[in-house]
Design goal:
Layout lengths: L6 E3 L6 E3 L7 E3 L7 E7 L5 E8 L9 H12 L10 E7 L9 E8 L3 E9 L8 H8 L3 H10 L6 E2 H4 L7 E6 L2 H24 L6 H21 L3 H8 L1 H12 L11 H4 L20 E2 L19
Antiparallel strand pairs: 1-4, 2-3, 4-5, 6-7, 7-8, 8-10, 9-11
Helix pairs in contact: 7-8
Length: about 300
Amino acid sequence: MECFSSTPSSFSSPRWFSKANPSFLGLKFNSKLSLNRKCRSFNKDGSRCLSMSHKANESSDFSYKKLIHFALEETNTHTPLALSPLQVLDFAAFPKPEFDLPIFCANFFTTAKMNIIVLDLNPLHDIMDQEDYKDKYYKDLIPLGLKYSELLPWGGKLTSESLRFFSPIVIWTRFSSSPHNHSVLFSAFRDYYQAWVELMDRSDEETDASQIARNCEAQHRYLTWRSEKDPGHGVLKRLTGEDLAKDVIKKFLFNGVNELGNKTFLDYFPEYRCEDDKVNEKRSMIGKSFENRPWNARGEFIGDRVEIF
């Protein structure tokens, strides 16, 4: 019997997690954050073998993980369980719009031989033009980024358009599967998430209605970009098929894109508009990509300036 690993996605704002059991996340909450836990897994032929969604409720102590624990333990008494060689993690933590915190982002794609990794505290607002926002959240984290950029080198070409959603401490890397590399990745995930939680603990709630609306629109713009141009789309289409991939992307991975705002992808990114008013399928309209890390050791952008629309 083969047990295919689940794909946890769109973790909307966990307070913190414990690694006591690496298969599940134990979470607590505060007033700055909310949680919506979802997971879905697929067989190699693209058919769905597991799908579940659980909205966290502070008044309930019940968790579906008890059901999954029982099923796995009971199955393991009768037959060995084997992990699928293909695993996908899409983990994002969003603050409430009353806070302008970055978005914690962990996108991992792993096969038996190769790993494709993006780990970052995605800036909510433009760090190219807003030095105060960049200094507020990233100035003290540059040493952390330098540490892991040496251990997990730059993974190759990244489009100019994608850079607007990444910070100077982003880890974009590819590496072969090995216990050592996976240990480094776990350490990076742990340290980045702890850094994000510490930023959250120090953050102050915004009371200005216009700024709250601006934060909300920035989150919607982020989700709109990722639901349309996320680089993981190709992997998901090959895994599940195009129709199911679209459903998973819009309604599962990036849910909220239809609730947080009314603007469309072309409202935010008009440069992608075709003559027939459809979205251009190209990944990049600027046509520039970065083969090497485009930030220096001080966190300063050293590539050609990316135009922000």
